[in-house]
Amino acid sequence: MTGNRGARSGKGSLGILIPGLGAVGTTVIAGVMAIRRGLGLPIGSVTQLGRFRQDPNDEQSERIVKDALNLVPLDRLHFAGWDIFEGSCYESAVESRVLEKELLQTLHGELSAIRPMPAVFSRDHVKRLDGPNLKRGRSWFDLAEQVKSDIQQIRKEQALDRLVMVWCGSTETFITPNQQHESLAAFERAMSANDPGISPSMVYAYAALSSGVPFANGAPNLTVDIPAMVELANEYQVPVCGKDFKTGQTLMKTIIAPGLKARMIGLSGWFSTNILGNRDGAVLADPGSFKTKEISKLSVLDSILDPKRYPELYGDITHTVRINYYPPRGDNKEGWDNIDINGWLGYPMQIKVDFLCRDSILAAPLVLDLALLLDLAQRKGLRGPQDWLSFYFKSPMTAALGQPEHDLFRQQQLLHDQFRRFAS
Ligand SMILES: NC(=O)c1ccc[n+]([C@@H]2O[C@H](COP(=O)([O-])OP(=O)(O)OC[C@H]3O[C@@H](n4cnc5c(N)ncnc54)[C@H](O)[C@@H]3O)[C@@H](O)[C@H]2O)c1
């Protein structure tokens, strides 16, 4: 089966498929379960708490996002996933140390019932991890077929009407876009030949798209941001989006930078450093995975500040990003920013930001929103990269594979414009 049932209506059940049941994956799943039982609020979720104006100039036209867009309600969501470790969602959530043990204990039965399916994995792509729960196959192509049959089985066993996939797996080592990514035919040849330019996340994405399942990429991996995958998404009429959830430090950057620019305040340097101690931090201690993340984090300032148009303000900026693995901090990351700005007659000033955040608490509502909005996009017949979802990403994919929008407020405008089109 390729298409999703109930494609036009918001009725029926939605399965959220998650490769990578680690800190973010289990926090969104446990969070939805807790919210359904009235044990918490969906804070950070635009689909659950947000409003928009149908007519931007008319206050009376304000509507609640989830109602106006007819999104699937939380009690009709189901979860399944893959991981290289065998532990259930309960065990993984306890190990991730994001949510309190008492809350997890309350959800023990539901969380324990979700066990990860064997993963497509390669240590060549994530050097600092290894686990036993793996698929075996002759080629990437063969492994994609196995993921496709997992998808079909879940759809059947859980009697799901529609499915979406959100990648919450580890950051893979940097891959340079190459000829094998240029067209679907070349990509499929490379899959059969076990080409190292193909990574596990691409295998899941290929399986999802060719099963008619929309795909969101929460990591900075190349994955679907290549012409071959866009071709596949268009062929199967499926929407895709990515890359890299915009959560802590980059979220702050894309809030502060547009403000400085709005007041024509100059910038000479932005030094960002982080300490984090979760498994994501351990993976990012590998230079290959860090490079993938660094490129994603560095890209935002240029596009917001537009140094070509404002060379006197932004023509010579030093922008540095560091991530340090520091186990005692666990998932509770600390991100410091030193921002060197200049004002009237060039006089220098400094801004210091110290964000004591919780990575997975910030990322979980994004996974929920993306799943519900991709499902909606598919029901509305949208396909290929969804620029209006750039609001959620550090390195947004664009339809023409062109320049993405990074300014959070312009991204919110794109999101609301699309909400208005959907609701009219
Ligand atoms: N938390 C945030 O704020 C945030 C923001 C942006 C991006 N991200 C990205 O989201 C991803 C998940 O973050 P996390 O904190 O949950 O990390 P995590 O290490 O806790 O979880 C990742 C999980 O993916 C599993 N995994 C790795 N490769 C896999 C594969 N091929 N198939 C199936 N499972 C696989 C790992 O075993 C692990 O359980 C990372 O790539 C991270 O960079 C997170």
What does this structure look like?
The chain has 424 residues and is an alpha/beta fold. The protein folds into 2 domains: 295 residues, NAD(P)-binding Rossmann-like Domain (Rossmann fold), CATH 3.40.50.720; 108 residues, 2-Layer Sandwich (Dihydrodipicolinate Reductase, domain 2). It is 39% helix and 17% strand. It contains 17 helices and 13 strands. The strands form 3 sheets. Strands 5-4-1-6-7-8-13 form a 7-stranded parallel β-sheet, with helices on both faces. The protein has a 4-stranded mixed β-sheet with strand order 10-9-11-12. Strands 2-3 form a two-stranded antiparallel ribbon. Helix 1 packs across helix 4, helix 1 crosses helix 16 and helix 7 crosses helix 9. The two termini are 31 Å apart. The model has no long low-confidence stretch (mean pLDDT 93). The structure holds nicotinamide-adenine-dinucleotide. The site of nicotinamide-adenine-dinucleotide has 37 residues, from helix 1, strand 4, helix 12 and helix 16.
**Helix and strand succession?**
EHHEEHEHHHEHEHHEHEHEHHHHEEEHEH
CATH topology of the largest domain: Rossmann fold
**Count of helical segments?**
17
Q: What strand order characterises the main sheet?
A: 5-4-1-6-7-8-13
Helical/strand content category: alpha/beta
